[in-house]
Amino acid sequence: MSYTYELENGQQLVIENDGGETLVSLSSGSESRQQNQATGFDSGKWSKMPTLFQLKEDLVLRLETKDGPQFIRVRRDSIQRMRSEPDLQAAEKLRLKKSDKAAGMTPMQPMKPLKGMEPIKPMRR
After folding, report:
1. Which of 8, 44, 47, 90 lies deepest, with the highest CB count within 10 Å?
2. If pLDDT is split at 50, 70 and 90, which confidence band does 9 have?
């Protein structure tokens, strides 16, 4: 199960808990010309749904795990784990939507084998 949030600038934030890893991706652009940045964090399993906050120019993701709360900051095109709990008193709580979309990048299709070359014919004298 993953969660998404549509940003005002057309970007989409996708958050997913895969085993003990949290995957966060930020994508923008159209289907044919999409830019995607994905980052994984060793977080452990979530104990409840993540919470997303708008704090000034940053988005702050709060994850509840058995080891306690963890925080991830999304700023422009940067996704990083925060070392300490931010002050969220003035933050606006945003609504995440459940989604089937994967946070990781979609795998590339394998290349088709190249056709073999014909052997070079010997030169004539």
Report:
1. 44
2. confident
Q: 110 in a domain, yes or no?
A: no
pLDDT digits (tens, 9 = 90+) for 60-109: 999 999 889 999 999 877 899 999 999 999 899 999 999 887 765 444 45
Residue 31 is predicted with a pLDDT of: 55
Say if CB 37 and CB 25 are below 8 A apart.
yes
Helix ranges (DSSP H) in the chain: none
DSSP state of 28: E
Whether residue 113 is contained in a domain is answered as: no
> Which residue range(s) make up the domain with 49?
2-99
Residue 111 lies in a domain: no
Kindly state whether residue 117 falls inside one of the protein's structural domains.
no
Q: Which of 76, 77, 78, 64 is nearest to 22 (CA)?
A: 64
Query: What is the pTM for the complete model shown?
Result: 0.74
Total number of domains in the chain: 1
